[in-house]
Amino acid sequence: MSQGEQILRELINDSEILILPAIYDGFSARLVASLGFRAACISGAGLSEARLGLPDVGIIDLSENVAATQALVAAAEGVPLIADGDTGYGNAVNVYYSVQKFERTGAAGVMLEDQVEPKRCGHMAGKEVIDANEMVGKLAAAVEARSSVDFVIEARTDAAGVLGIDEAIRRGNLYADAGADLVIADALLSRVDIARFAAEVKAPVAVNMGFGIRSRATTPLISARELQDLGVAVVGYSRLLSGCALRGMRRGLDVLMRSIELGTVLEEPDLVASFDEINDLMGIGAIHEIERTHLARAD
Question: If you average pLDDT over residues 37-48, what whole number do you get?
């Protein structure tokens, strides 16, 4: 049992809703840690988009995902992370070994979903889900595979948008019975559906929220406080940091292009983080301390 696993489990079961920003690179991991968030999740979509330049349609493979997770665990400086295990990369046998690989990264938990492989981002059209009994078998394998009982198994169902809220609730309870510690129904369509899912599923419940993407998100935007009142234990913001980063980079390049066209320098100091700010966030102080302590100096 790692300290991160125990902390995450306690936070999930706490009366206060747990806020999970989704990280996907060193910048986002360090920033979330520096701002004092108690835990975070890893965005599989963010990994695919940032590392491969490809959409979240099941292209990133297990080895790439595990390697990225290990690096993010290190960068997050002790903040407990839930890895994104997608579909588990195959059947129950694949899930068994995938969970072991994710646990060895130092992550505090892993999310597994019931989509047909290759999966799609939860808010994309064209999703399909596997038979519920197949997912139950995959979750049972996941529970058996973990070396620590505190390693969190999060089960995600995408059935709500495909088969309706009643089937999502049925699956949520099947997955809880199979040993899932946390259950998430992605792409719920209303407050009523969120409240029903939270009330009728026997395990702690998570939801994903958009942020500033009201025109595209299938789930209504609801504050964390209201979600807590609806009975939700965990809320993830899976697109917040990657969306903000992309918009910020686009703004920076727009300024650069305008400066080239005008043949001048456009100063917008609020547009970029300073050199010192970036180095401080990346932990340059710790590097300097190691240098002062251990580098040999000429007499």
Answer: 97
Helix (H, G, I), strand (E, B) or coil at 214: coil
Residue 44 pLDDT: 95
Longest Cα pair distance anywhere in the chain, in angstroms? 76
Tell me the two tokens of residue 51.
Answer: 């590392």
Record the pTM.
0.93
Q: Is the dihedral of CA 161, 24, 142, 231 positive or negative?
A: negative
SS3 at position 19: strand
Given a cut of 50, whether residue 127 has pLDDT beyond it is yes
Q: What is the pLDDT of residue 218?
A: 73
d(CA 236, CA 15): 16
- Sorted by where each begins, the domain ranges of the chain are 3-242, 246-294
Task: Pick one of 3.80.30.20, 3.30.499.10, 3.20.20.60, 3.40.50.300 as the CATH number of 3-242.
Answer: 3.20.20.60
Give start and end residues of each alpha helix (H) in the chain.
Answer: 3-12, 26-34, 44-47, 62-75, 92-104, 132-145, 160-163, 165-177, 191-200, 224-229, 240-262, 275-281, 284-294
Stated length of the chain: 299
Q: Which of 210, 243, 202 is nearest to 227 (CA)?
A: 210
pLDDT digits (tens, 9 = 90+) for 65-113: 999 999 999 999 999 999 999 999 999 999 999 999 999 999 999 999 9
